[in-house]
UniProtKB/TrEMBL annotation:
Pfam families: DSBA. The keyword Isomerase applies. Residues 3-204 form the DSBA-like thioredoxin domain. This is Predicted dithiol-disulfide isomerase, DsbA family. It comes from Geodermatophilus dictyosporus. The keyword Phosphoprotein does not apply. GO terms for molecular function: isomerase activity; oxidoreductase activity. PANTHER family: GLUTATHIONE S-TRANSFERASE KAPPA, THIOREDOXIN SUPERFAMILY PROTEIN.
Length: 217
């Protein structure tokens, strides 16, 4: 069974959703027969590549809300994250274009390290306040998960996975995704948002029951 997860590495709800999916899988009897595939989706593809900016004032401006109101919203997300064992500091965050990060995840997939790369990027961004927007930062994180630095730099320089990243986004739209995280099981069942682990487990159980052949004694 295949679970595809559309996400962005700077999406706080996506990391929460990842933890909840992991919790659901821990309780799923057939977890050893489940493949999790991470798909690319950008929260804000309009951000110019190579530019970064403080997240808090940018969000306040984008939604026309007072900074303190947005800060309070961030605290709510931080509390939710803490419930999943994650430690966020969103008000101090920096945002930027994540195309390169997604390209790195696709490269990692070629080496069987996609899950490790996705986790490392999430953890670096949300819990270590590290950049995931430039080649030097991404190369350093990639080496930590076992990728070759020279290959990473070459792949990010020639954008060999750019088309795959953009194709993921088009597929998400075709499947009806309007935001992330977006979970799709066997291209038949979907769940949008950082759903509770119980709901994700129900999704897995339903998908498994309807794909498993019926046997008679």
């Amino acid at each position: 069974m295949r679970i595809e997860v559309w996400s962005d590495v700077v999406c706080p709800w996506c990391y929460i959703g990842k933890r909840r999916l992991e919790t659901a899988l821990e309780r799923f009897p057939h977890r050893d027969e489940v493949e999790v595939v991470w798909r690319s989706y950008q929260l804000d593809p309009s951000v110019p590549e190579g530019e970064t900016h403080p997240t808090l004032p940018a969000l306040a401006a984008k939604y026309g809300r007072p900074v303190e109101e947005v800060r309070a919203m961030m605290r709510h997300v931080e509390e939710t994250a803490a419930g999943e064992g994650l430690e966020y500091s969103l008000a101090d965050g920096v945002s930027g274009n994540t195309l390169l990060a997604h390209e790195l995840v696709h490269l990692a997939a070629e080496h069987g390290l996609q899950g490790a790369a996705e986790e490392r990027l999430f953890h670096a961004y949300f819990e270590e306040s590290r950049s995931v927007f430039d080649v030097d930062s991404l190369a350093a994180l990639a080496v930590e998960v076992g990728l070759d630095e020279a290959e990473v730099r070459a792949a990010l320089a020639d954008h060999r996975y750019r088309a795959a990243v953009l194709d993921d986004a088009r597929t998400a739209q075709a499947l009806g995704a309007t935001g992330v995280p977006f979970f799709v099981v066997d291209r038949r069942y979907g769940a949008a948002g950082a759903q509770p682990a119980d709901l994700l487990l129900q999704l897995l159980e339903r998908a498994w029951a309807e794909r498993a052949p019926v046997t008679s004694a």
